[in-house]
Amino acid sequence: MTILSPPSARLPPIRRIHEHSVDVLESILKYLRTIYNPPVRGTRRVDRNAAGKSSTSGGAEEDALVLLRTDEFERAYTIRWLTGLVAQASLIQDEDAEDDRADEVFDAKIDTLIRDAASLLAVCAGTAAASTVTRRFSFAAPILKSPVEVQLTDIPISVDGNAATVGAHTWGSACLLAEMVVESPERFGLTEDLMSQGLRVLELGAGTGLVSLATAKFLSARIDTAQPTPTVIPTDYHPEVLDNLAYNIKENFPDGEAHRVSLSAHPLDWSLFSEGAREASTSAAPFDVRFDVIFGADIIYEPTHARWIRDTVAALLRQPASYGGKMESTSPRFHLLIPLRPTHVSESRTVEEVFPRVSAAFPPDSRNSLELCILDVESILCEAEDRRPGAEVEYVHYTIGWA
């Protein structure tokens, strides 16, 4: 059966769930996840030619998925089935068990199965914002032999004082930026030249860590053993977000496995760089050495953020060894991707207020100093989940560098 088969026809009888193997049940959860836990809203670029896919058949299948997703009977049946899976998980037998080690592996698989089923239950019941949700992403990587795959956990959004832990969830900007980086790595500074010198990448407001994890997985697959180990540093501010970020890193880069990239989460308070504490903020590792590439996805949602981010990037983005005239493609860059939200028009406008366009950055008599400038602006339209005409989500990608 194809993925378009309704759950009531595809799923095994509830009373016999425990008779199936873990592998079979995992494949069923993958099928249900495709229906009920689709890509984050507003991340499918309009008129983008997806490698290896027919846009016509893809659109028809997506329309069918939307119909399944909104079918109340199928959703209710799926909720009952997932509830049955959680209840019967302890009854599932491991037919291949031979020793204690095998039992431990099997128990871990059962735990993962229960966690994934509970995550899907939260999505189907419409409580994703108040529940822990597991998401899986697969990004096409043209220069690699296989796609870059990332698994993330979104945790409930909480409020601490006046600040909500918005980084607890994966937002559309992060999905889109991760996809673009893996699809066109050289455009985003992941060049052979920089990799041969020990590439350093920083992410501001990393949240669940999708951009950093996708970048790290790409570099781990791409880097040569003879090249210096690249460094990827995802950062955030809120302790709960940082704890979840560290968890996501461990899930994608387990301890004890060989990896070709240095990846670790760190707290970073942007406001310190605008309050005269720049020297103290850059005196300790990993911020004592500047970065070749800095990423930021949907990190401006308050009026002060653009100024804080400008000062932070100014302190942490490596300056080119020489300047004057046109910058090389390998020059240090800050890539900022933001959605154009009607509710945050003023915040979005502040980006171009604090980062001047490169053509207007300097008067004719002032060209002996460096300033962070907008080098390029790209508008990106993405389809909304429901595919209604005119329901696109618009993003702006700013490429910012020293000029």
Tags for this model:
alpha/beta; Rossmann fold; two-stranded antiparallel sheet; 9-stranded mixed beta sheet; about 400 residues; 12 helices; 2 domains
Give the CA-based shape. Answer: globular
What CATH architecture of the largest domain do you see?
Answer: 3-Layer(aba) Sandwich
Along the chain, the helix and strand elements come as HHEHHHEEEEHHEHEHEEHEHEHEE
Rg (C-alpha, Å):
23 Å
Backbone structural class:
alpha/beta
CATH homologous superfamily of the largest domain - what is it?
Vaccinia Virus protein VP39
For the report, how would you describe the main beta sheet?
Answer: 9 strands, mixed
**Assembly state here?**
single chain
The CATH class of the largest domain, by name, is Alpha Beta
Low-confidence runs: 49-57
Report mean pLDDT, rounded to a whole number.
83
How many beta strands in the DSSP annotation?
13
Head-to-tail CA distance between termini: 57 Å
Q: How many structural domains are formed by the residues?
A: 2
Strand proportion, as a percent range, falls in: 15-25%
Q: What share of residues is helical?
A: 25-40%
CATH topology type of the largest domain: Rossmann fold
Please report the number of helical segments: 12
